[in-house]
Amino acid sequence: MKDEETQLAALYGDLAAVDLHPLWTITRDLLPPTPRPRSVPWLWSSEVLTELAERALRLVPVERGGERRVLSLGNPGLGGLPYAAGTLWGAIQCLGPGETAPAHRHTPGAIRFILSGDGVATTVDGDVCDMHPGDLILTPSWNWHDHSSASDGPMLWFDGLDLPMIEALDAVFFEPYPDVRQPDSDPHNRSEQEAGPGPRFVSGAVRDVLAAEHSPLLVYRWQDTDRELSRLAAGSGEPLVSIEFVSPETGASVLPTMSCGMHRLIPGARTLPVRRTGNGVFVVHRGSGSSVIEGQRFDWSAGDMFVVPSWAAAEHASEEGADLFSIGDSPVLRALGIHRELALDTHQQVTGVFTPAALRPKNSVGV
Fold first, then answer.
1. β pairing state of 296-301 and 352-353
2. According to a count of CB atoms within 10 Å of the terminal CB, is the N or C end of the chain lower?
3. Residue 343, beta-bridge partner list
4. Contacts of 7 (CB under 8 A, 6+ apart)
5. CB-hemisphere CA count at 13 Å for 160?
6. Which tens digits make up the pLDDT trace of 9-45?
7. Other CB atoms closer than 10 Å to residue 244's CB: what's the count?
């Protein structure tokens, strides 16, 4: 028996020496009964994000090299990586008066959801897209894009990218544009004028349609989104109504790798929890409320950002009503046939309240 144990230990040592792994010792780690994402439920407060963004505006110039003044959301479960979740990048980007964030392109696809400010435009492959609070702007994979301000004040927006996913596929490419900016185009917002008559939203979420192409419409205006949410809420009777932004040409998600949605909580509403495969990052556009994620309560208000990891039970509530913007990776999961969803029939027991002391503003010289 002792001789056998010695031989087994020698086997494991010899396997490690030639970079082999015995599956029988790691099967449970590789094939758990349910998803075990490394990212954890987390929240970044608007107060902290805005204060630090304003300091960055004063201290950090936008120029070639850094290219962007961005504060990325780093999920503590990911060991220091600058990602909001295992498959999604989330960040707050800030542009000061008269500044230009230089033009470039990359294989990761991106979206912008505008938080505050005005007078800024994103030029996407020559189309100047004006940006206003509540608007959704697409900068699809390998499209040239730059951000330019003609305003006398700053603008803040949420950046969502599929960068972690593209990095995991070893397919990240980046290229700077020959000049700082693309040429101005006239008229602005060409994609809005050229987009077909097809619907720009679906109620709930896209379930069946898949497309390898991105939406030809690059700008989804808040007034259209608000109107559609109000229409759905008026006849729903449900605590929550949701829409997903879609390509008017195909009815598929706006990007082949990312979904974008907006969710309206009715005043006094509380939803039942749902589990979904795939990660989600949420931005509170208006109102206040709370979400219970895997038993922990997250209180939020306008401008806050929070993460719901894959297969985490999540439910939402708001006394005054609220609008939440979200990004997710569901198009990829649906394309691979591994998207799952499970609605639960009872509310979760709240076992704790999220209070991240590390995210509280700290006094420092010059602030």
1. parallel
2. N
3. 274
4. none
5. 31
6. 999 999 999 999 999 999 999 999 999 999 999 999 9
7. 22
